[in-house]
Design a protein that fits this description.
The complex is a heterodimer of chains A (85) and B (585). By secondary structure, chain A is mainly alpha-helical. Chain A has a single domain (2-82), classed as Non-ribosomal Peptide Synthetase Peptidyl Carrier Protein, Chain A, CATH 1.10.1200.10. Chain A has 4 helices and no strands. Chain A is globular and about 30 Å long. Chain B has 2 domains: 5-383, Thiolase/Chalcone synthase (Peroxisomal Thiolase, Chain A, domain 1, 3-Layer(aba) Sandwich), CATH 3.40.47.10; 398-581, Thiolase/Chalcone synthase (Peroxisomal Thiolase, Chain A, domain 1, 3-Layer(aba) Sandwich). Chain B is 28% helix and 22% strand. Chain B has 16 helices and 23 strands. Classes of the chains: A mainly alpha (85), B alpha/beta (585).
């Protein structure tokens, strides 16, 4: 799980162009949205693309993403349970 | 001397329902809709509901009008269809030097970039100014055509710009052509945005779940008229305004800020009871319709009948403003408030006067309002019983307060002097950001055009005591040739079917060249007008004429304007100015 968390952090930084962040700057248990990383609705949509592209997981809408993107750890658990690639 | 009055001299709608404004009104009144389910239309695109032309029907209509030249693209034929019909009987000679062509479109020929049969993609042909030039040349018009590319408000922006150019006496007639075609490029982007409804859209309804893409073309011919010469019953463009939310590049303001301000600017001088209706944007996305309900209430228009035409035509993008204005004129002229197809039960937090049935009106004025990506909002008011014309204002003059320049060869220059940089191309922009800004990480999410415009504005405004708003007296007006081309190509690369078809919403949003104006408005919290024009060349005379139109809005006291062009990530140029109005009356 820790390996997947680290991998997701790197993928998030790359997909969302978080140029000034390093993986260790992201707390795996902190909320991804809200104040933390300053992400917005377009970032949420881009994370949906990331899940499909890298893990073959399709989320129907942004509302489904809200649950999955609570933190990197929640995201990693979801990926581990649902990945198709 | 009174100002000239801007009147409708001709108009035509070409939609999947019919050719001709009256024929479209009949179709709508008989309950017909162009919305159909489209499955397997383009590789990778999921089934969607939209209002698209039947190809055989469109080909027949083009052939009947003599518009079947293979040198014209589908988009250009469509645009020419409505322009030809609108000019017929308008009394306007399109080849005359006092006529200007203004094209309103969001993406024009962009489908050519995604044409896998054509390799390499014809990038020059995909540019909107190339299409505008073909349209103007088709009619033998001698003037440089102007493309208004302001996302979904383009149609209203184009009408407002036309009226200003006519009032300034630069031309006597303006042919304002709005057109957009649907393509995999656009539909995939809206699907990535999760903005499309799988079924016919439901504006303002509790069950609304997204918009439907549509394609159409609509042309409105406007003429400048002396007040005594206005024909009885003529539709007069009385007011128009554009305001930015300064909030987010894709999400509407939760307070309806820009929409409210645009509505206030066009309705402030009349009683709401004088309006037959407000024709809303009403796209049927959850956020847009809620925002509009709030804006209408804040503007004191809660009791005025409102409607949305998206249930008949879908969202026709660059055509929408002109199509919906023309159909509203036709309806109001016959005492009708058109129904909102798909509306049953209110799903917005503020009550509005909506109906899925036609209603009667005896008023002879209406307001049309729209909102778009980049945070822009526009409203116009048309009337058949216009108020007494305003006295002609003094000639607005402006003084240049500041300048800034960035070129990909390393030239970075402001009034403070030359800024030395060793970097070139894309690396230059990152270096400028690091040295001059460095605390706005959103910079790295922007496309190359927005990075360029954002940094030019940073250099321009650094140290300006009045720089940061919120303020609604400062406008942003940018001109470009290649617009978002560089990013359009980047978006196409996310559409590699079947091996790598992952349309990127974050890339798609920047495929609109007006987003850079929105980025500048958000950064500095400018709630004033924002505009983007595309021109066939870096022509300073045309740019000065367009910049001067900004002073026609009495709210605008200063203007960030300039030329930004970025054909690829390593080749770009930006020249920006901060102008200030020197005479107000």
């Amino acid at each position: 799980m820790e390996e997947l968390i680290q991998q997701l952090k790197e993928e998030i930084i790359q997909a969302l162009n978080l140029e000034d962040l390093r993986p260790e700057d992201i707390d795996a248990d902190a909320p991804l949205f809200g104040d933390g990383l300053g992400l917005d609705s377009i970032d949420a949509l881009e994370l949906i693309v990331l899940l499909e592209k890298n893990y073959g997981i399709r989320l129907a809408d942004a509302a489904a993403g809200k649950e999955v993107f609570r933190s990197v750890r929640v995201m990693a658990e979801y990926v581990a349970a649902h990945r198709t690639k | 001397m009174a100002q000239p009055v801007i009147v409708k001299a001709g108009g035509c709608i070409v939609s999947p329902l019919a050719t001709g404004t009256a024929a479209n009104l009949e179709a709508v009144l008989s309950g017909r809709s162009g919305l159909r389910l489209h499955s397997g239309r383009w590789p990778g695109v999921e089934p969607f509901t939209g209002a698209l032309f039947d190809e055989a029907d469109l080909a027949a209509r083009c052939a009947a009008a003599g518009l079947d030249s293979p040198r014209l693209t589908r988009f250009e034929r469509l645009a020419l269809l409505s322009a030809t019909e609108a000019l017929r009987g308008s009394g306007v000679d399109p080849s005359a030097a006092d006529v200007i062509f203004i094209l309103s479109s969001t993406k024009g020929n962009v489908g050519l970039l995604d044409d896998t049969a054509a390799a390499p993609a014809d990038t020059e042909r995909s540019l909107l100014p190339a299409s505008a030039a073909r349209i103007a040349a088709h009619f033998g018009n001698p003037n440089t055509p102007v493309v208004v590319c302001n996302a979904c408000i383009s149609g209203l922006s184009a009408l407002i710009t036309a009226a200003r150019l006519l009032r300034a006496g630069r031309y006597r007639h303006a042919v304002v052509v709005g057109a957009d075609c649907q393509s995999r490029f656009i539909v995939s982007g809206f699907q990535a945005f999760k903005a499309l409804s799988p079924t016919a859209c439901r504006p303002f309804d509790a069950a609304r779940d997204g918009l439907n893409p549509g394609e159409a073309s609509a042309t409105l011919v406007l003429s400048a008229c002396e007040p005594v010469d206005v024909p009885p019953g003529a539709w007069v463009l009385e007011r128009g305004a554009v305001r930015n939310d300064a909030n987010h590049i894709s999400g509407p303001s939760r307070t309806g800020e820009g929409s409210f301000r645009a509505l206030r600017a066009v309705c402030g001088d009349i009683s709401p009871a004088q309006l037959a209706f407000v024709n809303t944007h009403g796209t049927a996305t959850p956020y847009n319709d809620e925002m509009e309900a709030i804006a209408l209430h804040r503007a004191g228009l809660a009791d005025v009948p409102v409607n949305s035409l998206k249930g008949y035509y879908g969202h026709t993008m660059g055509a929408a403003g002109i199509l919906e204005v023309l159909l509203s004129m036709e309806a109001a002229g016959r005492g009708i408030v058109l129904p909102t197809r798909g509306y049953r039960q209110s799903g917005v937090s503020r009550p509005l006067s909506l109906s899925d049935q036609a209603r009667h009106t005896d008023r002879h004025a209406f307001v049309k309002v729209m909102s778009g990506f980049g945070g822009c909002n526009a409203a116009v008011r048309f009337s058949q019983e216009p108020a007494a014309p305003a006295p002609a204002p003094g000639t607005a003059a402006a003084v240049c307060l500041r300048t800034a320049r960035i070129d990909s060869d390393g030239t970075v220059h402001t009034d403070r002097g030359t800024h030395p940089y060793a970097e070139r191309g894309a690396a230059l922009l990152t270096a400028i950001y690091r040295r001059e800004v460095n605390d706005y990480p959103k910079f790295f999410k922007m496309d190359p055009l927005s990075r360029l415009g954002f940094l030019a504005a940073e250099l321009l405004l650094a140290g300006d005591p009045g720089r940061f708003g919120p303020r609604d007296d400062r406008a942003v007006l940018l001109c470009s040739r290649t617009g978002s081309l560089c990013n359009d190509l980047r978006y196409v690369r996310t559409l590699q079917w079947p091996e790598a078809y992952f349309p990127s919403p974050a890339v798609f949003v920047y495929t609109l060249p007006n987003i850079v104006a929105g980025e500048i408005a958000i950064r500095n919290r400018y709630l004033g007008e924002t505009s983007c024009f595309l021109l066939p060349a870096d022509d300073t005379g045309v740019q000065a004429a367009l910049a001067a139109t900004a002073w026609a809005d009495p709210a605008t006291k200063s203007l960030v304007c300039g030329w930004i062009d970025c054909p690829d990530a390593d080749h770009f140029t930006a020249r920006m100015q901060l102008l200030q109005r020197t005479t107000t009356a």
